[in-house]
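Retro notes
What went well: the complex prediction finally ran end to end.
Inputs used:
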Amino acid sequence: MQSIQKNIKNSDLLLEVNNLNVFFDTADGKIQAVKDVNLFINKGECLGIVGESGSGKTQTFFSITGLLSSNGYCNGSAIFKDFDLISASEDKKREYLGKSIGFIFQDPMTSLTPHMKIGEQLSEIATFHDNLSKSEALKRALNVLDIVKLPKSRNLINSYPHELSGGMKQRIMIAISLMCSPELIIADEPTTALDVTTQSEILNIFNDLQKGMGISIVLISHNIGVIAETSDRVMVMKGGKVVEKGSTFDVLTSPKDEYTKHLLSCIPPWLEG
Amino acid sequence: MKDKSEEILSVDNLKLYYPESAGLFKSSNTIKAVDDVSFKLINGETLGIVGESGSGKSSICRLILSLVVKTSGKISWFGNDLDGYTKKEMKDFRKKVQIIFQDPYGSLDPRMTIGSIIKEPLDIFNGQLSKQEKEEKIFQLMNDVGLSNDLFNRYPHELSGGQCQRVGIARALINEPSVLICDEPVSALDLSIQAQILDLLNDLKSKYNLTLIFVSHDLSVIKAICDKVLVLKHGIIIENRNTDDLFNNPKDDYTKKLISSVPSPIPLAK
Amino acid sequence: MNKQENIKAIEISKTLKGRSLWVDARRRLFLNKAAVISLFTLIIISIVSVFGPFFLQYNFSDTDWGSIYQPPSFETGHYLGTDGNGRDLLVRILHGGRLSLSIGLIATFVSVFIGVLYGTIAGFFGGKLDIFMMRIVEILYAMPYLIFVIILMVVFGRNIYFLFIAIGAVEWLTMARIVRGQTISLKEKEFIETSKALGQSNTLIIVKHIIPNLAGPIIVYITLMVPSVIILESFLSFLGLGVQEPLTSWGVLISEGSREMETAWWLLIFPGSFMVITLASLNFIGDGLRDAIDPKEY
Ligand SMILES: Nc1ncnc2c1ncn2[C@@H]1O[C@H](COP(=O)(O)OP(=O)(O)OP(=O)(O)O)[C@@H](O)[C@H]1O
Ligand SMILES: Nc1ncnc2c1ncn2[C@@H]1O[C@H](COP(=O)(O)OP(=O)(O)OP(=O)(O)O)[C@@H](O)[C@H]1O
Ligand SMILES: [Mg+2]
Ligand SMILES: [Mg+2]
């Protein structure tokens, strides 16, 4: 059934991951963090990913984008527009990362360079990938900061990361991923440090990107509400495996897997009412 | 045993201003991170702090522990001004008041194993315990926050975001503090583990009357655990009310907007 | 937590062994072949330098006018040849090794110790203390160390220990500056703030958090410093301020050997090889240590 669906949409396919395994060497032996994960993402689609903490959500996408730490390795394939990201060389990957694939890291606080001004961090990526001049890149940076609803009144371009609050840094991360027009944005817990009003503004931005510009989004989140509002399909992970996937509506309203059921049962009742 | 309405911490007219960093020229603007904030913390209660991103929540937490120098105002612990504290009194204070920082990974020393990170507070204040006793305590707490034992010898970068966050929680709890300041303590946890942590905190509250300051963007968590809530905007407290009160009839426009913006977990059929 | 779990936790704590960074680092260092071989080489060179001369038939200062500039040969017992005074080269190299190695290692470690302590204190506490401490460093920097050494020698007479002091006094300055800079950026990190919030004392924050996180740059600097110290020593000796004939060091042997390279190649090649092997070993050990101490390296 699924494969038929896939064939129909084949021309829209942006990323297809097959039999992905991720391993880590630790002092206590080898561990497998991701076990035989298969997934696909179509153009202009939002795939939501929920799951237990430590279930391998982050590492799945780290391995695809070549960001695994030095004790990790992976096998399988990840075809991004006819191009296998996993077997690609570092240089080739770097060409895609940042330009065609934007990554919003789960940990914004440590993903920003401490001694570089926000303006430089934003414009750096545009000068690197799009060969923009410094002033053009800075102009684009200001524009992007505006998109993620950072206050204009502040001179953010000249601030250092430690001068910003958690949520501000998180929005800087989102802004960085928007600096070059990507085709796929991987957003790993992008709104954890944002208040609900700002969060809904960011989710609106995601919706605009997806519907208006045809950008695909992978949204990893623990917040079922966020997933429900944004994603078309959901994938549930536990212990490195995908335990359930399907359309957001189906999975959230009639879950089949025990873990999914358990997870949904933890939603506080007042939210549902 | 304890006077229920005893006031343990009071914050009066607290201010924290930063000069704005500018390009070439010093700008004369100031950022009012915390602007004239006053509140009281009653023994055993849970005080929630919510508010816009950048409204000064983390700054208040840091100020209480004197990790940043305040611009003006007064913070008193059992009626004594913290400014007059000697080094020893300050150390004592810090034993009783623990904090879980907002940034789960950044608050862990990258060169320490998880075991020694959780052990650090024990080394500082409970040096008389044997190694065995310390490890028992660590394993118990790791178990309580849902961390598996094989993470004991790992380093922070080998953990997931939520695992790091739980290490921070375990470390803050190991010396049984009387006040716990939590800055977004469950933001990286899935709902099921979130519930486990909230249960644990509730347990500690009933067991030894733990007092909590709980910063969170997640209103359902705030609703579940807090007795009182402060709503903050631009460094100013705009509401300070009982939780039920606040949720049932929010007065301020911002609060209303906040409550109505909570994303619903019920998907629309597409 | 219920009783059953409690018992479980106790049992686990009995079986699971806790490790620290240092235990992990030692294990990782020993997994690094280049570092282990280098460590072994360095130990052998040190042992041979210390004890070797006792087993050789020649003394380092015995001149033999009948056999000057002899090339290496097994028959005569001058395995590595002789110099212009007919002295046995092997025994002189070993003797010189004692001095070069001890200056290289001891002067380095003393200056690293002082530099790290000074730099972390200045950087960590900052403010007026930092300004004051760094002014002192700048003043010492500006003082020509040669004059400093000469004054020492004039006042106290010529003594090999002043060589250590003079070199140490120069080298710690750079270390202190590097460490201070790194400490200032580390201090801003959230985990340092956390440790403060836990009630940790400043001394222990420096010892437990700052220094281990500085280990990388410190070790890199040490591997750069040892050769420069050995070379500095030969320079001082060349000026007549260091070791004096018939005592010698690798630096001295090499600089003498290079002058007679065309007539007696062995006078340069052999002391040079000892030096190169030692420095290369130190480099590998340094690299190994740096990686071993970084938990992100595997
Ligand atoms: N460098 C590493 N070495 C060893 N184990 C690792 C490493 N990085 C991650 N892991 C382990 O891999 C598992 C999956 O981690 P991952 O970061 O993908 O989890 P996650 O699903 O993103 O969880 P969270 O929601 O808590 O962020 C975890 O159990 C983690 O401990
Ligand atoms: N060192 C600093 N220098 C300058 N400004 C700072 C500094 N630290 C914090 N600020 C500013 O103070 C304000 C309040 O920051 P704070 O971290 O308290 O916000 P917050 O309420 O915790 O926000 P979030 O929910 O996003 O974490 C922000 O505008 C921030 O930019
Ligand atoms: Mg993650
Ligand atoms: Mg904050």
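What we learned: The CA atoms of residues 214 and 236 of chain A lie 24 Å apart.
What to try next: split runs per interface for comparison.
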